[in-house]
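Onboarding guide, step 5: your first structure request.
Type a short instruction followed by the sequence, for example:

Predict the 3D structure of this protein.
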Amino acid sequence: MVSRQTLVVTAFVLAALPAAYLVEAASGQFTLSFLALLAVGVGAPSLVNDYLDRHESDGNGV
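The system replies with structure tokens like these:
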């Protein structure tokens, strides 16, 4: 069985590729597209998983 964390990371990594392409197409700057790739592919799933972990632990009364 696949964990929720793995699904979140996979979804954001798959979304990061077109996001980086769109930023590259709009701005013409590789640096901005690379930053978008990192933000969407690495930063966002970490924040989402942290939020969901905290929300899940609050619901259990821990």
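Each response can be followed by summary notes, for example: The chain has a mean pLDDT of 93.
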